[in-house]
Amino acid sequence: VKPVWVAVSALTATGVLAALLAWLSGAETQIDLREVTDASAFADPWDAPRPREARTSHRLQVSFAKDASAPAAAEPVLDTPEHAVDSAVSALAAGDDAAFVSTLLPRIRSDATPEAIARCRNRVTSTRVLPDWETSEVATEDGHEVRRVSMFGKSMTGFHHLGAAWLADRLWCLPTGAP
Amino acid sequence: MLPRASTAAAFCGALAVFACEGEPNRTPADASSSERVILDAGAADAWAADAGEPPSALPRDAGEARDASASTDATTVDSGHAPDASTDAGAPLWDPRSGPPSRKGIWIWYFQYTGYTARDLAVKCRDDGIGYVLIKSGQDGSYWSQRYNEANVREFTSRGITVFAWPYITPNNIQGSIDATVQAARVPGTAGVILDVEVEWEGSSPTTNAQAAEDLCNGIRREVPNVFLGYTSFGWIGYHANLPFDAFDRTCGDVFMPQVYWSDRGVTWDHGYAQAVEMLNAANLRAPVWMIQSNDATPSGARPSSADLNAFFERAGTYTSLWEWPASGHQTLVDQLPMLHWSNP
To answer: Are B303 and A126 within 8 A, CB to CB?
Structure first.
């Protein structure tokens, strides 16, 4: 009986301690869940969540955190190219395909097949989207403003200012021209 | 120029070694090589990354085979823009025309993206064992002097790391691109320039943008006669018949760096490598080949393992490089870098 009692006590104490820690740092718990969610898709055991990373995962959360003004996925905010990208990423992350498609120019929306959107979702959830806004270029096309930016270091994506919205002219979340 | 048959033979030799020597030196990564398509997390590698040592007997890589042939071609290579030879590390700086580097390389988009300053990134590269870096210097007619400049280049060269500039160039503004590239090439410490030419160069036929390619390369060489001038583009060139590879090969062919991004494509590293070599062989290009692999995730979101990245490094040879230095916040990827086998045997 004694070993069983010891084991039960230890487990209980561990659970209480874990619950207490979770309660004391609720944000950290959420962060860890996010990281586990991301890492669960990794094929590399080395990339799987590790205790050391769990303790320091606030860095990831800070890095991945969106601008406070970032729009919710349900209602894309397209008033600037930056917000258009944030909206697209949020929509993909939230699984809101329609919201994502609404961030694209109408003429390329047919490119956004379910398969393409699935690949986009995988990409934006496994890779940080940090467009090089500093070197973006502004031009005028057909009477409207276009801001071109490199999304992943190479080909430029144009964001066209049509009406009140800035819409992307490429399915920027897929590799261009590959393989 | 070396006869095409010799170049082809060199490639066939590389392929033969690939075929014959691969088996006795199978690494855990090879165990999955029969599967062409990378499966996602459900097919996770059963071995721990970096658990296995690389093959002891390395096959001769395509790059080395091509270099050997290119070295006999006196018309193709200029005398070279000698990089800054002084390094705080005391070791001589690798010159791309002097022979193979002692360590492999990595591509850098821009410093802010990485979360490091140039100095901190150079220190990290040195500590991780990286031998050369390729830093983006501009886009078409824009030269990024605030990013690619003497001070930033020196942070690397002074630590024994060779630096190449890489501008992304489309056919839209050839003269502007020449001017911008020349500015980058003239930054002291620059060992060479690698033009990144991709989808924008694909026309309706192989000749559509061939003249623009020649004008671009010849224009750069006119301004900087001794420049080490190469190019990078798609890794599986057989899928890009209308990209003017021949023109780039003739005029920017100090090196060709195909982007064999097997993880992005979702195939195994060895399938990706073998198919890339097969297509290169068929194209019969002249330039030495330095392959690039990527640490990007697969289409299903899986990250390439360190074991697979190292296996590709071993197979593709001494000049190989990795796209790219990860974005800030991707700590797992940053932590993976020192686990990769940068050092060449």
So the answer is: yes
Which chain A residues have a beta carbon less than 8 Å from that of B257?
A: none
B330: distance to nearest CA of chain A, Å?
7
**Could you tell me which residues are beta bridge partners of residue A147?**
A138, A159
Tell me which H or E stretch contains A160: strand A156-162
B104 touching A (Cβ < 8 Å): no
DSSP character at residue A69: T
Q: Of A78, A175, A171, A158, which Cα lies nearest the Cα of A117?
A: A171
Q: What is the pTM of this model?
A: 0.74
Contacts of B234 in chain A (CB under 8 A): 177-179
Question: Is B277's pLDDT higher than 70?
Answer: yes
The mean pLDDT of chain B is 81
Query: A143 at the B interface (CB within 8 A)?
Result: no
Q: What is the 3 state secondary structure string of chain B?
A: CCCHHHHHHHHHHHHHHHHHHCCCCCCHHHHHCCCCECCCHHHCCCCCCCCCCCCCCCCCCHHHHHHHHHCCCCCCCCCCCCCCCCCCCCCCCCCCCCCCCCECEEEECCHHHHCCCHHHHHHHHHHHCCCEEEEEEEECCEECCCCCCHHHHHHHHCCCCEEEEEEECCCCCHHHHHHHHHHHHCCCCEEEEEEECCHHHCCCCCCCCHHHHHHHHHHHHHHCCCCCEEEEEECCHHHCCCCCHHHHHHHCCCCEEEECCHHHHCECHHHHHHHHHHHHHHHCCCCCECCEEECCCCCCCCCCCHHHHHHHHHHHCCCCEEECCCCCCCHHHHHHHHHCCCECC
Q: Is A134 on the interface with B (CB under 8 A)?
A: yes
Give the nearest chain B residue to A50 (CA atoms). Answer: B332
Closest Cβ–Cβ partner in B41, B115, B202 for A42: B41
The pLDDT of residue A16 is 54
CB–CB contact A178 B305 (8 Å): no
Find the mean pLDDT for residues B301-313.
97
Query: Which pLDDT band, with edges at 50, 70 and 90, does B86 fall under?
Result: low
Q: Report pLDDT for A103.
A: 98
| Tokens of residue B122, six digits | 């150079």
Q: Answer yes or no: is the ipTM higher than 0.85.
A: no
Chain A contact present for B68, CB below 8 A: no
Q: Could you report the per-residue pLDDT of B184-206, keeping only the tens digit for each?
A: 999 999 999 999 999 999 999 99
User: Best interface-test mutation with B: which of A126, A152, A157 has the largest number of B CBs within 10 A?
Assistant: A126
Whether residue B57 is predicted with pLDDT greater than 60 in this model: the reply is no
pLDDT digits (tens, 9 = 90+) for A25-63: 433 323 222 222 233 333 333 333 333 333 323 332 323
- CB B98 within 8 Å of CB B316: no
- For chain B, report the end-to-end CA distance as a whole number of angstroms: 30
**B239: contact with A, CB 8 A cutoff:** yes
